[in-house]
Design brief:
Shape of chain A: globular
Keywords (chain B): Magnesium, Metal-binding, Transferase
CATH topology of chain B: Farnesyl Diphosphate Synthase
Number of domains of chain A: 1
Number of helices of chain B: 16
Oligomer: heterodimer
Largest sheet of chain B: 2 strands, antiparallel
Largest sheet of chain A: none
Order of helices and strands of chain A: HHHHHHHHHHHH
CATH class of chain B: Mainly Alpha
CATH superfamily of chain B: Farnesyl Diphosphate Synthase
Distance between the termini of chain B: 14 Å
Strand content of chain A: under 5%
Protein name (chain B): Heptaprenyl diphosphate synthase component 2
GO molecular function, one term (chain B): metal ion binding
Family (chain B): Belongs to the FPP/GGPP synthase family.
Distance between the termini of chain A: 31 Å
Largest interface: A-B, 46 and 44 residues
Order of helices and strands of chain B: HHHHEEHHHHHHHHHHHH
Organism (chain B): Gracilibacillus oryzae
Structural class of chain A: mainly alpha
Helix content of chain B: over 70%
Number of strands of chain B: 2
Helix content of chain A: over 70%
Radius of gyration of chain A: 19 Å
CATH architecture of chain A: Orthogonal Bundle
Shape of chain B: globular
Chain lengths: 264, 323
């Protein structure tokens, strides 16, 4: 199966598992982070039960992402919005229950434990990052990367792929920044943008923020390119994907493109 | 009689569970630690651990194994409470500020997720897949019960069956699962496990109905929240369902709920007074008593020991509780 087909196959499976009539009627379908699906697919490519690992991990990720959509305080007057927020709390709880049920039915208790440890680390890191003021975006992103990769790192550890964790972290960050930049360019709003504005870029203009984001993509690309350590074969897919992106992406910084030309 | 007196012989084991709870939620992350501890110190009856311990006494009781089940269930209950306070926008629980009031909704969400993860991590030390399947199903049903509560808000065309199904999911299942999982942790016979499950289920149903009655009959001071709060939030509970047999009360509620945004304490007060003047509370109590009776009956097949006596006493206490 080609990667686009694969992604769609897993998305369908995930949506089927988390479908609950009333939530489905009242909330938008949760956004599945394709790059994380892809990383999971790469890490579990040698596993017989790969679908089971990919689907359960992504459902946990969805549960925790869903809870990020809760406002710090409820709007007092807008009953419709309040109901939406109430259901969003429950949607996250519901997805958590589904992940647990999937693994319990498969009698895979050790993977339940592994993901629970990932949730634990992620919530602790969120409590730190969401309530912290950062002096610069680089430090912010170093800490933010830990939120993005908390679950995937646990999966990597579970399959003894620790050697690839550092590379995967940079790859995930690259994909995340690319996605956020694209949203930014298309006037899309995101939780990540809010975080950047509130926790790093206070008093920053939209243009300054865009340029900051751009320079961070550039920096992350350099870090990935300079990565020298040997990786387990499971990560070949991520390397190939990165190289493909570098060749075809139209959002790379001019400097990167020039350097790419020089290195040939 | 005080509730704690009915199971004083397990006090030492309950203290061990309290220590496990504190140890389990410990983290170096200051905000999550403080928020979780605040929740833990707010107290509560610790009914679920009590049910786990007592149920386990009908089998091979090993506190080191049973305490993992008991503390996990209490943590899952706590995680659901902290999220409930976000859903209900509650600033006070048991007379004390909630996590969302002391910090904000986001911290409350993170605290709930953190405690949930700790509970699951702890529970994975129980190596029986069936126990995990039961707990997973319970958690899903609990959430679906809450979703249904939101779906049914301000809907006056509900019937007894809708209400009972909702409270079964929302409350009874976690109590029945506590009894069942205690039995499983102690390797009781399947028959004993089923009897304990039934006891917990009937107790849970009665417990929630009494809770819904107290919401009308309790004072703000006793409840730690405004009386009539459920109806104010649009939740149609058993006393309301019975009271709506009175045509005038039903009409008042239909008029009031036509524009839910304008419903407030003052507008609701005369309707609550009218409900209290009917025999709705008495009728709801009859249903609660029927469940209690079934709970007692479920215990008949079990050996006559201290644990059984305690379970009977708890049922007695729940049936007569004033708060």
């Amino acid at each position: 199966m080609k990667s686009k087909q694969l992604i769609n196959y897993y998305k369908k499976r995930i949506h089927k598992n988390i479908k609950q009539d009333y939530l489905f009627m009242n909330l938008e379908q949760p956004d599945i982070e394709e790059y994380k699906l892809f990383a999971l697919h790469a890490m579990t490519s040698h596993q017989l039960q790969k679908d089971h690992y990919i689907v359960s991990t992504m459902i946990v990720q969805l549960a925790l992402n869903t809870h990020d959509q809760i406002f710090r305080s409820f709007p007092q007057k807008d009953k419709h919005l309040i109901k939406n927020q109430q259901l969003t709390v429950l949607a996250g709880d519901f997805y958590s229950g589904i992940y647990y049920q999937l693994l319990a039915k498969a009698k895979d208790i050790s993977f339940v434990r592994q993901l629970a440890k990932g949730i634990n680390e992620m919530t602790q890191q969120k409590a730190f990052v969401y309530y912290q003021q950062f002096d610069d975006i680089e430090t912010f992103l170093q800490e933010y990367e830990k939120i993005e990769t908390a679950l995937l790192n646990k999966v990597a550890t579970y399959f003894e792929l620790e050697q690839g964790i550092e590379y995967m972290g940079k790859w995930i960050l690259f994909k995340k920044l690319q996605l956020e930049w694209w949203k930014f360019k298309n006037s899309g709003h995101s939780f990540f943008q809010d975080l950047l504005l509130h926790n790093v870029g206070k008093d920053m203009s939209v243009n300054e923020l865009e340029s900051m984001l751009f320079s961070m993509i550039d920096l992350t690309i350099k870090k990935i390119k300079n990565y020298q350590k040997k990786l387990p074969p499971q990560f070949d897919m991520l390397i190939q994907n990165f190289q493909h992106e570098i060749r075809n992406s139209n959002l790379l910084h001019v400097n990167s493109v020039l350097e790419e030309g020089l290195s040939k | 009689m005080k509730l704690a007196k009915t199971y004083s012989f397990i006090k030492k084991d309950l203290n061990q569970i309290e220590t496990v709870l504190e140890d389990t939620i410990y983290t170096d992350q200051v905000v999550l630690r403080d928020a979780s501890l605040q929740l833990l110190k707010a107290g509560g009856k610790r009914l679920r651990p009590v049910f786990v311990l007592l149920a386990a006494m009908f089998g091979d009781y090993n506190i080191n194994r049973v305490k993992k089940v008991a503390s996990s269930l209490e943590l899952i209950h706590m995680a659901s409470l902290v999220h409930d306070d976000v859903i209900d926008d509650s600033d006070i629980r048991r007379g004390k500020p909630t996590v969302k009031a002391n910090w904000d909704n986001q911290i409350a969400m993170l605290t709930g997720d953190f405690i949930f993860a700790k509970a699951l991590d702890q529970f994975t030390e129980i190596d029986n897949p069936r126990a995990h399947q039961i707990l997973a199903k319970t958690m899903i049903e609990l959430t679906v019960g809450e979703i249904e509560q939101i779906r049914d808000k301000y809907n006056l065309n509900q019937n007894l069956r809708t209400y009972l199904r909702r409270i079964r999911r929302k409350t009874a299942l976690l109590i029945s699962s506590s009894c069942q999982l205690g039995a499983i942790a102690a390797n009781t016979s399947l028959e004993t496990e089923k009897a304990l499950f039934r006891y917990g289920y009937y107790m849970g149903m009665s417990y929630q109905i009494i809770d819904d009655i107290l919401d009308f009959t309790g004072t703000e001071k006793e409840l730690g929240k405004p009386a009539g709060g459920d109806l104010l939030q649009g939740n149609i509970t058993l006393p309301v369902l019975y009271a709506m047999n009175d045509v005038q009360i039903k009409k008042d509620l239909v008029d009031l709920f036509e524009s839910p945004d304008t419903v407030n304490k003052e507008k609701l007060k005369p309707v609550i007074d009218k409900i209290l003047d009917t025999n709705a509370i008495g009728q709801a109590r009859v249903i609660s008593d029927r469940y209690l009776h079934k709970a007692y009956e479920s215990l008949h097949s079990l050996p006559d020991n201290k644990a059984r006596k305690s379970l009977e006493d708890i049922a007695n206490y729940i049936g007569n509780r004033k708060i």
